[in-house]
Amino acid sequence: MAKISVVVSAYNEEKKIDKCLDSASFADEIIVVDNSSADKTSEIAKKYTKNIYSQKNDPTAIDLQKNFGFSKATGDWILSLDADETVSKELASEIKSIISNQKSEINGYMIPRKNFIFGEWIRHTGWYPDYQLRLFRKGKGKFLEKHVHEKLAIEGEIGKLENHILHQNYESISQFIHRAADVYCPNEADYLIKNGYVFSSFDAIRFPFDEFVNRFFQREGYKDGLHGLTLSVLMAFYRFLVFAYIWEKKGFIKDNSGNFLGRTEEEFKKADKDIKFWFFNEKKKTIKNPIKKNLYKVSGKIRL
Hints:
Helices cover 45% and strands 18% of the residues. By secondary structure, the protein is of the alpha/beta class. α1 links the parallel β1 and β2.
């Protein structure tokens, strides 16, 4: 019968590692890569496995550390977890069933993930169903180690599972800002520059504005209420930081030419027009009566 290894990479996760590894107890093997934690992460992990490997902590090399853990796994299948994630009982049963009855050529599976942010399961705003490629045949998947937040690369066919990984994501504003400012944003700036990003001064407006529109309107963040609004603004700030880091890495390019105030005004006018369109478009969806909806469309065209 096929066996499964769960691989967890952790750094100072003494508050969460217990639940994570307990949820992984259905597996035949648990591998923990402890990235030089200064707390009791490693000590707690010993309750669940002897397979604990110490690595130097490097927030920009998270995927390299995960690949190291994959190389230590002996199971036929590997499930990659973060320390702030747990496997639901339903998912554990589904994984065991899939592996024991695996007859297809599928080498990896996408798993839906529930993100709990600021104490709430976020159902919209781009955080659900948040499919993650986490389950794969040993030797058929790895991270390419190009940047933080990249996805697993799988050789062969990919399927989807129905049940969830549960993710205790951001618990505080300071945690969000710390990760963004110190790890994710500078890394993403490097990635964009490396891949040919052409600098534009007004991306200082476009980056955050486009992100807010994407989160709050296109991904229906407004349905998450204040959580959705706040997360949309925070993600807009995240994208502004990416731009700011690019600007810094480009040597703080100067741009005072060509009526800068007027050009800035045009950017905000365009943003204002786009915002009005999105409010109109989303409000239209809430109108059920066909006649009222048509009247709303006509009045909206006149206003816009």
